[in-house]
Amino acid sequence: MQLAEGNQSSGATFILLGFSEYADLQVPLFLLFLTIYTVTVLGNLGMIMIIRVNPKLHTPMYYFLSHLSFVDFCYSSTVTPKLLENLVVEDRTISFTGCIVQFSFVCIFAVAETFMLAVMGYDRFVAVCNPLLYTVVMSPKLCASLVAVLYMWGIVCSLTLTYFLLTLSFCGSNILNNFICEHSVIVSVSCSDPSISQVLCFVIAMFDEVSSLAIILTTYVLIFVTILRMPSAGGRQKAFSTCASHLTAITIFHGTVLFLYCVPNSKNSWLIIKVGSVFHAVIIPMLNPLIYSLRNKDVKESVKKLMNHPTQLC
Question: Which residues, including other chains, have CB under 8 Å from residue 272's CB and lie 6 or more apart?
Answer without folding.
Answer: 263
